[in-house]
Amino acid sequence: MTLTRTLLATTALSMTTGLASAQDMANEMTIVSWGGAYSTSQQNAYHTPYSENTGVTIINDESSAEAVAKLRAMNEAGNVTWDVVDVVAADAIRLCDEGLALEIDADTQLAAAPDGTSASEDFGELLVSDCFIPQIVYSTTFGYRTDMVGDNPPTEICAVFDTETYPGKRSLEKRAINNMEWALLCDGVAKEDVYDVLETPEGQEQALAKLDTIKDDVIWWSAGADTPQLLADGEVVMGSTYNGRLFSVIEEQKQPVAMLWDAQIFDLDGWIIPAGLSPERQARALDYIMFATDTQRLADQAKWISYGPARASSAPLVGQHADLGIDMAPHMPTDPENAKNTFLYNYEFWADYRDDIEAKFQAWLAK
Fold first, then answer.
1. What is the DSSP track for 133-173?
2. What is the SS3 assignment for 250-296?
3. How far apart are CA 80 and CA 88, in angstroms?
């Protein structure tokens, strides 16, 4: 899992200080992420201070939703133009399995906690792949218009399928992940059995049949900003998106929207470094990762967005929102009150089955 002796020598100074000098590295790097409030939080917590310390210019690319396909194409063409890429855990597993991401030795290439706890222990079980550097715990969940649900606000996930009690359009992401799990849960499948059922063709058809019951009432979204905008405009009564996006529309924009935390689907997001970079670019990417994933930096990101930091040592350092001055801990998906009924995303399942199930989902969608 370690780099070659040559690269280790190249990056030795960087790993000692956590920052490499601008003279030692090229002055520009491309970091890929998701855009919106999430990219803003990364810009504030990571990119700006790193650039100020090193002189490296960071170019933001918002192509994370297409990261797997684009990295495959870049690798095939022998021209990798990205330096660091933000991906969900399942995509990191796929990229690692395909040899498209660099393997990382957490205890030599990531910073230890302030008390000396090793990075591997501090990140713990969130290190779900040899190539994945966890950044945040987030969830995909639902927001709803408080002025469109009367005196009976939804409290359970299956309200999404109840068009009689909650008439109006819903917004769902235009992909199989999460929708298939919620459909099975609301069709009577026990939480612990969902992935066993979804593994079978019959289970996949069961999930699609449940989604059929609301298909005519759904606006399908592709970008995380879509549902917050649809909610703000009153075009949907409820819709799924990332909890940080909903935090923004509720707390920052003060829209009449509330969170439905029931059966929120926990997931991990973090960094990979593409395979195939030159030694100089790889050293710079490792230097950035060392800096951006230390205990304080991960806690700092929570000043701008309601995602829980992936390091155990970062959690006690989460404070108030940088602009709003409100405590951020109660807005995290990991808050005990919010996490009473969570659904744990199965990274390995989707790494193995995503291409096949996604093809079936898209064919259903096109009917």
1. EEEEEEEEEEEEEGGGSTT----SGGGGG-TTTS-S-EEEE
2. HHHCCCCEEEEEEEEEEEEEEEECECCCCHHHHHHHHHHHHHHCCHH
3. 20
How far is residue 272's CA from residue 222's CA, in Å, rounded to a whole number? 22
42-45: long-range contacts (C-beta < 8 A, 24 or more apart)? 42/86, 42/301, 44/300, 44/301, 44/303, 44/304, 44/322, 45/292, 45/297, 45/300, 45/301, 45/303, 45/304
Q: Which structure tokens are listed for 240?
A: 């799924």
180 within 8 A of 198, measured Cβ to Cβ:
yes
Tell me what the mean pLDDT of segment 249-262 comes to.
Answer: 95
Give pLDDT tens digits for 277-287: 999 999 999 99
- Contact between 44 and 303 under an 8 Å Cβ cutoff? The reply is yes
Tell me the three state secondary structure of residue 43. helix
- Provide the pLDDT confidence category of residue 13 given band limits of 50, 70 and 90: very low
Which amino acid appears at position 189 of this protein?
Answer: V
Which of 274, 317, 295 is CA-nearest to residue 119? Answer: 295
CA–CA dist 214, 45 (Å, integer): 40
What is the CA angle 279-60-224, rounded to 5? 125
Rounded to an integer, what is the distance from CA 302 to the centroid of its chain? 14
Written as one string, the DSSP assignment of 219-232 is EEE-STTHHHHHHH
Rounded CA separation 54/45 (Å): 15
Let me know: does 366 contact 215? Beta carbons within 8 Å.
no
